[in-house]
Each structure stands twice: as C-alpha cells, then as structure tokens.
Specification:
By secondary structure, the chain is α/β, with parallel strands linked by helices. Helix content is 37%, strand content 15%. The model has no long low-confidence stretch (mean pLDDT 93). Keywords: Glycosyltransferase, Transferase.
C-alpha cells in the first residue's frame, strides 16, 4: 500500500529527457495519492513544462545554488519545511537531493536512495538500471501500484501548431530532423544531417527543423524548412505539437528526441559509444535506435535505409 499522505513533494531537477521520462511516474504518484496536493521541485528551465502537467498542483523552482551559499540553502529549507510535506518522492536521487534529505527534510517520509530514508529504493546499483525500470522499482519499493511509469505519454504537452506550420508553408506529411544537442556534448552529434536531408528530399519527403539556440548556425547548413525562420525559437509545447504531427523524427541523443519518442511519433535516434541507448529509455515500439562505436563513421546510406524501412513497416501496419 502507498503511504498515506496529504502533501507530497516530488523532486525532479532535470535534464530535459529525464523530466520527460518521469511523466509516467508522476501519473502513478497521482493515481496512488488521488486526494493529495502534489508539488514538484525542479529547475527554472522546466517550470512551464511541469506546470502544464495534469498530475501536479504546484511547481517550486530550485535555482540549485552552491551549497556553500548557506543563505540560499536556509531559504529553501524554510520554504520546504513550511509547506509541511509528509511524503517526498526523490526522482532525482543525486548528491544534491541526498543533501536536501539530510539538511532539510530528514524527519519526513522519503522515497529514494538517500541513506537512512524511510522508503529506500532497494536496487543494488540503481544507476545501472534502465531509467524507466529504475523509476518503477523505486515507486514499487515505496508501496505504489505501478501502471504508467514504464509507459510515459506526454501528448498533453503538445500545442495546436496548425498556424505555425502554415506560416512556414509546411504541409503534412513531413519528417523532422534534430541535428543538434547541448553544446556541452558535441560527441552526441552525428555530423551528416546535411546529406541525410538531401537524400530525404530527393525521395520526395518534406524535411523540417526546429533548432534550439545551440543549433541555429548548424541548421543553416542543412537543407529543409527551418521553423525558426518564420516563428523564432519554439517553446516545448510548440515543439511537442510539431513532433506529434510529424511523419517521422530523426535525432541525436538529446532532449527533443526523447520528447518525440514519448509523444508517440515514429522515429529513430542515433547513438555513439558514450552511453548505452537501452539504458536511456528512449527505445519504444514507435522509436528505434542505431547504435555504433563511432558516430562520425555512421553512413548516410545506413540511416536513410533504416528510416525508409521503418516508414514502410509503419505504413503496412496502419
């Protein structure tokens, strides 16, 4: 049985792909605590996204100030304690949130990996477990019934983008390319999206991109329609709408690719050897991966053929 709770705190700082994958866990927490007030503690970048969640009542922003800033730590501690939470689900399970347990909320019931917490995740080495299985295991260890954690569905996030697409003269069907990723992880970028776009366009497909701030210059080198040219930078809700209406998405191991995977769009993610794709949780019935030792050596032909194969398989199943 889940612990009885009136006021629940969920902690999920990021990153974006991890926040997206926590959607099913949030739904299960809500179903197991239908009458509780649920608050989530997250980073500023995800405030608007999580405020839209139908399973959350309140969002508290954590600037994640350095822990030596005692004034900031004491202010956060005061706010969290005044909220009188009687259950905490730590879905971040980081050294920072373990510190929050010890310094701020040690006397509250706590689900996670913090040493000494009331509802510990009992997996031997949680960091080696696939993300969705890890979340499911933690919540099961806390006594929750698990129905959605392994099957996130963020269709509620998507805006109606009919006008946005019309302004860019984009008609369905179209394929979205996600050629970038965080500037901090250049090893995650497959360098041949320009050639893939040329091959897709030659095959009769409309190619669309919605680059983020780190990919604006890169997107200018790739054939296709850039939605930012007519609309400017898209927010997460608009990007979700673009993905939901797409025929297919091809992207790197980056947050937008996880968004596409968990909104139900057919797609393909490209992974190098830096991280096992299976552990990230991006592989779904609708979303596959190509995983190689050296991303730079991954040929355009192989990616194009896999896109074509998956499109044909999807068409035959509809």
């Amino acid at each position: 049985m889940p612990p009885d709770a009136r006021r629940i705190l969920v902690i999920k700082h990021g990153a974006f792909g991890d926040v997206i994958q926590a959607e099913g866990a949030l739904r299960d927490i809500r179903e197991n605590h239908p009458d509780a007030r649920i608050t989530i503690l997250t980073m500023p970048a995800y405030r608007a996204l999580l405020a839209r969640s139908p399973f959350i009542d309140e969002v508290i922003v954590d600037e994640r100030a350095p822990r030596w800033r005692l004034d900031r730590m004491l202010a956060l501690r005061k706010r969290l304690r005044e909220a009188d939470f009687d259950m905490v689900y730590d879905l971040q399970n980081s050294s920072r949130t373990n510190f929050y347990y010890r310094f701020m909320l040690r006397d509250r019931r706590w689900s996670g990996t913090a040493k000494g917490c009331s509802h510990p995740h009992r997996a031997k080495d949680p960091k080696k477990i696939r993300t969705l299985d890890r979340l499911a295991g933690q919540l099961a260890d806390a006594g929750l019934t698990i129905r959605h954690t392994r099957k996130p569905d963020i269709s509620w996030l998507a805006d109606d983008v009919t006008a946005l697409l019309a302004a860019a003269h984009v008609a369905r069907p179209y394929i979205v390319l996600v050629p970038g990723c965080s500037a901090r992880h250049p090893q995650k970028r497959w360098p041949h999206y320009d050639k893939l776009a040329e091959a897709l366009i030659s095959a009769g497909h409309t190619v669309v991109m919605a680059p983020g701030p780190d990919e604006m210059e890169l997107a200018k080198t790739i054939p296709g329609i850039r939605l930012t040219d007519t609309h400017g930078l898209l927010n997460w809700n608009e990007l979700a709408g673009v993905f939901r209406n797409a025929l297919f998405v091809v992207g790197n191991d980056t947050g937008p690719s996880h968004l596409a995977a968990h909104i139900g769009t057919e797609g393909l993610a490209l992974f190098g050897s830096y991280s096992p794709a299976e552990r990230t949780g991006i592989i779904r019935d609708n979303f596959g991966v190509i995983e190689v030792e050296d991303l730079e050596a991954l040929s355009v032909e192989r990616v194009f053929n896999e896109v074509t194969r998956r499109l044909e398989a999807h068409s035959n199943s509809v």
